[in-house]
Amino acid sequence: AQASKLQVNGQNFHTIHLEADSIGERFHLQNLLIEDPRGFVTAQGDINSKTHELDIRFAGDELDIGSINPILSSFNPKNGSNDKERERTDFPIEGIAYLRGDADMGARISGTWDNPTVAGRLTAFNVRVGKFESERVEGVVNASRDRVVVRQGNVLLTPGFITFSALIDGLGNMESKPPTVAVTAQVEKMNLSRLLTMAGVQASRAPLTGSLSTGEISLTGTTKDIQTRTPAHITLNNLTVGDLPLVRTEIDLSLRDKTAIIEKAVAEIAQGAITAQGTLANDGTLKLNIGAEKLDIASLLAPYQTSEDLTTLQGKLFARASVSG
To answer: Which residues of the chain have pLDDT under 50?
Structure first.
């Protein structure tokens, strides 16, 4: 059987080609080819018409993530039933995806028609989600209506990257209880200005440049209250604030009770150091203690003095300050 130029749930399909046979309770899918305006999906396998059990292998090439997102969203029928909640959580998604199996046999759909499980390796290129952009996102995914597990995750953000694994559980009951989350991640050589742009931070008169790396970060909690198991160690290399260079900055950061806690921060600058400790609550309340130790005044002023400026200040700067609001 073959059909052309179909539309299902708002999704356009260029061609659907099906070859199948049925023996008793077993419906055998010899070959299914689904083509959208850009890519295609092929599938083979069995469906038990009595028990509704599924055993289907499939693969996809050059799938337009933006166009298939409505189908992915409807995978959990409870997801997005509240229009206001959906408006808050939906983001425009762009990218081209490829689906394969974790082994040579291809990705797999198992379980039952009412409770399917999808397992396979997803690789997507030129991904955009809101302001987030990545050249490549990949991972081994196992997903059901209630749970999503990602292993061997990798997000390429040239010149840096993020490796991660993740578990989100309780999606089927998210209307009454936020899903639980467990994530392990590590960041390597992330471009700081690019990261700030994706976070929606506007460029200032003293822009930040440099790279960001972390040790292993372990997160747990729910989608509404993420916490760190242990403080995340963050290193900023080749950091500059405007024209002022910082040799090295290290931060130990915790997330607890919807509050970001700076356990310890040290920035090497002007032959001395700036230290900081404090908290930033979810409601924007800031409490910060800052200290300056042995800062060389001439080094601090040098980036802002012209060659004709003969004014010279020398000495060491020590300071303490508290910031709140």
So the answer is: 75-81, 83-89
From CA 54, how far away is CA 283, in angstroms rounded?
47
Contacts of residue 309, Cβ cutoff 8 Å, sequence gap at least 6: none
CA dihedral of 70, 76, 80, 81, whole degrees rounded to 10: 120
Residues pairing with 157 in the sheet: 160
pLDDT at 239: 87
288: Cα within 13 Å, side-chain hemisphere: 16
Which residue carries 């000495």 as its tokens? 315
Distance CA 249, CA 275 (A): 10
Residue 306: the pLDDT is 66
Q: What is the mean pLDDT of the chain?
A: 85
Q: What is the arrangement of strands in the sheet containing 208-214, beginning at the earlier edge strand?
A: 190-191, 208-214, 232-241, 244-256, 259-269, 272-281, 286-296, 316-324
171 backbone φψ class: left, alpha, beta (φ>0; ψ -120 to 50): alpha
Which residue's entry shows tokens 């309780």? 170
pLDDT score recorded for residue 103: 66
Distance CA 6, CA 20 (A): 20
Identify the residue whose tokens are 């440099």: 210
Cα 23 from Cα 239, distance rounded (Å): 67
Token code pair at residue 92: 């425009």
| Residue 106 to residue 120: CA distance in whole angstroms | 7
What pTM value is reported for the model?
0.81
